[in-house]
Amino acid sequence: MYRKSTLSIIRVFPKLILFILILVSCENTNSTITKTIDSNAESIGKIQFEQKCIACHGFENKTEEEMIAPPMYAVKRRYMKASKNKDEFINLMSNWVKNPQQEKVLMRDAAIEKGVMPHLNYDEKDIMQIVNYLYETEMTKPEWFDAHQQSHQK
Ligand code: HEC
Q: What domains are defined for the chain?
């Protein structure tokens, strides 16, 4: 009896190892696939942001006076302050972009100075990708930003 069961364990053992190996390798491919999907979604968000928001919110090749909207660095900072977590950030910002209204304005000085952001007819899906990208990505701070902040606090 003893012998028989030891024998059968020995016989099954290589199969068991093979099974575990297959499991482990499947998990690896799965996580690579998820990562690829994530980074694809993020780069789509980046492209959409560049196409749909940079024209007004970008500061490259612009002086502070030439800006027609606050730089995204400032917008993100304000929205991070107003939200406790990613979900709140996504809700707050997508809600704004879908329907910007004076009474919802968080960046009051900017709205007074530049006028409230116009309503732009974007796809819900594009907005969600952009907003997700903005949450996940560190925005570049314009060189003039700190001086601008100080002049506003005076
Ligand atoms: C035609 C110019 C223009 C475009 C394009 C534009 N914005 Fe704006 N946006 C503005 C201006 C001007 C303000 C500042 C006034 C204000 O707060 O409404 C602003 C403010 C904002 C704010 C802050 C609103 C608040 O609470 O005060 C957010 C968030 C925002 N934009 C997100 C976006 C995103 C995301 C995109 C791209 C999908 C985008 N904007 C495209 C002009 C634009």
A: 2-140 (1.10.760.10)
